[in-house]
Each structure stands twice: as C-alpha cells, then as structure tokens.
Amino acid sequence: MNGNIKDLDIQKVEAWLAKKRPPIDIRPQLDYTYRLQRNTFILCEVRPYPMMKDGYRTAPFAKIHYLKRSNIYLIYWQRANGRWLNYEAGNSATTLNDALAIIDEDVHGCFYG
Questions:
Q1: Distance (Å, rounded) from C-alpha 51 to C-alpha 56?
Q2: Which residues neighbour 76 within 8 Å (Cβ) at sequence distance 6 or greater?
Q3: Which residues pair with 35 in a beta bridge?
Q4: How far is CA 1 from the centre of its chain?
Q5: Per-residue b/e over 58-88, b at no fewer than 16 CB within 10 Å?
Q6: Short-list 66, 68, 76, 70, CA closest to 96
Q7: CB-CB contact of 60 with 76 (8 Å)
Q8: What is the pLDDT of residue 47?
Q9: Organism's domain of life (predicted)?
Q10: H or E stretch including 86?
C-alpha cells in the first residue's frame, strides 16, 4: 500500500491505462503512464522529445486525488501554465471508476484537448 491509495486502486488505474494505450507500433510516438504521489494519481502522456536526456517527455494531463476522510476522489486538469484546476468545481467522484469515467468522457475538452 502506498500512502492512502489502496492496492486495488493501483490495479484499477493500471487496467484503465492498459485500455487507453495505443497499439505497440505507435507507443514510441505516444503512450500513457502514471505516477503515484501519496494519495494522488498523476496521469501522464509520453511523447518523444529529443531535448530530454532519455529522448521522451512525460506531460501530466489529469490528477486524481483521494480524500480518505471523505472517501471521495477529486479530479484536476492542468492548464498550459502548469497550474492544476479542479475539474467541474465542486464535483467529486465517489469511486475511482467514476473518476476515470469522467476523465474518459472529458466533456469540457480539458484532458485530451
């Protein structure tokens, strides 16, 4: 277990990403991954970037923050200036699956443009 995130939540995010990932032949050009920081999943896009040491740039596009005391998931999107904003201010998801579904829908075009 990492912070407040349950092992089951990690498996859910990994399964969700497995479905989102493009075919193997496209992955050198576009792929998805995540980082885990205590009770927050940071979902990232990975693209080639020759200026970086390893040749790839990892750009966060969504953040899911778990509030243990309320048992809810807050969803954030990142503006071009790097600032994280609450997606649909005041709304939260009661399950991780609901949070991932909101990111999939992206009704405001914040996550995938």
A1: 8
A2: 62, 63, 64, 65, 84, 85, 86, 87
A3: 42
A4: 19
A5: bebbbbbbbeeeeebbbbbbbeeeeeeeebe
A6: 66
A7: no
A8: 93
A9: Bacteria
A10: strand 84-86
The per-residue pLDDT for range 5-57, each reduced to its tens digit, is 778 899 999 999 999 999 999 999 999 999 999 899 999 999 998 887 778 88
DSSP-based three-state secondary structure for 96: helix
Token pair in block for residue 91: 């709304």
The stretch 57-75 carries a mean pLDDT of: 93
| Of 107 and 6, the one with more pLDDT | 107
Which class for 10: exposed (0-12), middle (13-18), buried (19 or more C-beta within 10 A)? middle
3-class secondary-structure state, position 41? strand
Q: Which amino acid belongs to residue 85?
A: L
